[in-house]
Amino acid sequence: MDAEDWLMDTERKLNTVGCNDQEKVRYATHLLCGPAASWWDNIVAVYPAGKVFTWEEFARKFRESNVPESIMELKRREFESLEQKDKAILTYVREFSKLSQYAVEEVNTEDKKKKRFRGVKSQFKVELRMMRATEFQELVDAAITLEDDFKQLQEEKRKKAKFEPKRFVSNKPNTSLSFKPRYNNTTNNNNSNYYGSRKNQHFRLQIKSFAGAVDSQGILPRTVRSQRLYALVVARRGTCSRTAPRETPEEVNLEEVEAEEETPEGTEE
Which of 34-38, 172-176, 258-262 has the highest mean pLDDT? Predict the structure, then answer.
């Protein structure tokens, strides 16, 4: 067993039996033997008689004498960068206490300990700062309570989500909400032009057919004349084509229609 392991094991046993600082130093130094015992006798001789050593003082001097400086520096850096991350609060506190022994000058007062206790999870930091605890142990107890409350809250959320009905979300696009034009202007215009031209052609053929309906005196019957006049008016107004400009009945010149009616068929362009 190396020096560090021996020191940690001894401290753990002395804490188990409930020793205070003075008792821990007395029993630990009693366990030293050989060169280690001589080393401690030399330490005591330097100080005035009756000097009472705390456990922290004994542990620091023991490490300085028996633990290599490179190991001390490594452990000190590990303490400065210590964070809780995914560990429980109790695990973090144990590591904090263990590694702080390599940086005694940074935790030798209650205020320094509380400032160094900054590696807890972010959801606990604000609450702990607002508490303004006077002692380090109060801060530790509060952190343990906050962690327990947080775990209970997460468990309640998990149970609630388990019994809530799941909503089915379809991956198919909702075509009913997509905009569709009611008609295609281009297609309708083309169709209207087509059917309009067909109807105009029909009226023209109908007008031409009236040419053979004259009586023996060369005069169209009244009924046939009226039908032909109506066909000319309709053709002039352009009602058969949706795209052609429409004329109102007032805009149609009946005299021009009469003239078109009297124009011989052979002169029509």
Answer: 34-38
Residue 14 has pLDDT above 60, yes or no: yes
Q: How far apart are CA 63 and CA 28, in angstroms?
A: 14
Write the single-letter amino acid at 137: Q
Contact between 134 and 155 (Cβ < 8 Å): no
Q: What distances in angstroms separate CA 191 from CA 185, 195, 197, 199, one per listed residue?
A: 10, 6, 10, 12
Cβ 236 vs Cβ 257: under 8 Å: yes
- For the whole model, what pTM was predicted? 0.46
Residues 51 and 44 sit within 8 Å (Cβ to Cβ):
yes
- Residue 141 and residue 147: Cα distance in Å, rounded? 10
Evaluated on CA atoms 105, 110, 112, 114, the torsion sign reads positive
Q: Could you give the CA distance from residue 209 to residue 150 in angstroms, rounded to a whole number?
A: 98
Q: At what angle do helices 35-46 and 55-66 cross, to 10 degrees?
A: 120
- Residue-by-residue DSSP string for 14-37: HHHTT--HHHHHHHHHHH--THHH
Q: Show Cβ contacts of residue 138 under 8 Å, excluding neighbours closer than 6 positions.
A: 131
Q: How many CB atoms lie within 10 A of CB 231?
A: 19
Helix (H) or strand (E) holding 114: helix 110-116
User: What is the sign of the dihedral through the CA atoms of 160, 161, 163 and 166?
Assistant: positive
And the tokens for 90?
Answer: 């109790």
Helix (H/G/I), strand (E/B), else coil: 215:
coil
Within 10 Å of residue 141's Cβ, how many Cβ atoms? 13
Helix (H, G, I), strand (E, B) or coil at 217: coil
Distance CA 57, CA 25 (A): 9
